[in-house]
Amino acid sequence: MATANRLEGIGEYYFSTKLREIDELNKQGRNIINLGIGSPDLPPHPAVIQTLQEEAAKPNVHGYQNYKGAPALRNAFKDWYQQWYGVTLNADTEILPLMGSKEGIMHICMTYLDAGDQVLVPNPGYPTYRSAVKLAGGVCIDYGLKAENNYAPDFEALENLDLSKVKLMWVNYPHMPTGQLATANVFSKLVAFARKHNILICHDNPYSFILNDHPASIFSVEGARDVAIELNSLSKSHNMAGWRVGVLCAAKERVDEVLRFKTNMDSGMFLPLQLAAAKALTLGREWYNEVNAIYAERRQKVYEMLDMLQCTYSREQVGLFVWAKIPATYKNGYELSDAVLYESNVFITPGGIFGDGGDGFIRISLCGSLTRFEEAIERIKKTIIETRDAQTASR
Asked: In what residue span(s) does the Aminotransferase class I/classII large domain sit (predicted)?
């Protein structure tokens, strides 16, 4: 049976294939330490789990739910945005809970793109933007993000493009994979650019609480709601990646438009899960500080590992990963990633999976215990580093 044309040029997600390879290596007894995936290994707050347990035990919560989400969850998102981002949203009309923000990426593309419509996609950037655009029939137009420009869009270069067919622009700050923080200035320029060219900005914002004391929303910029949609998620901020709870925030018109597609694709989330997510959104500063203290300690180990590999990196980046430039002794990030995997039994992500703008980089996840990071360091030290030192000494 032939597959649909929309799948042409769409490969299986990189981590899906890589995890299968790692599984095979583990069957061979390799015991791979996986430092590539951004799946939080810490649990949600105990009160969140307790809420899920208590609500799920009730007999009347197991039916279909409202497509727009439970009022309790929408109001919790409204309060969360007000408390942490200083943004006022209408819980009835401007908030749409999602089964994870990745779902929202696809919903947005399917809602707004016709065949041949163009979309500005960051390079390097989250690979799902590109695949969702293609699956919806759109055409990806890369815009490069470079370290020398603090991984901000080059608006001068964008103005020199033919933007007549561009309908959407994917944006992501704090940026994944580079960890670049959002700035009010970049957000303001994005809003002005979108207004000038009638482009819908799609801001993906799941990392704003990780190792960052000042979470920011694009809606903090005046006029942003006229030209932007923002996605957010509890996956990283509340250690709830497998729960699949996200949100789309936008003006009423945009929410209604996306809802037209969403209601034909899924149903409402399990109510106890929504109520537990609402509980998570009430957690205070102490929760974020506790989680970030753990990540900060792990990040020091990642720095140690990167120093051994002779990589260079910024200590100003935030989020769940560390992005680093590889030494000139390696052709690209894939070569370094493979060397560490096959020689040291440690998996780190090659930057090239995020676009050719990431070819000279690697990315290491902070999701793993200190013991795992220490073991990874010892493995790399005993294989790659000792081999390198021996080769240097023999010259």
From this structure: 31-380
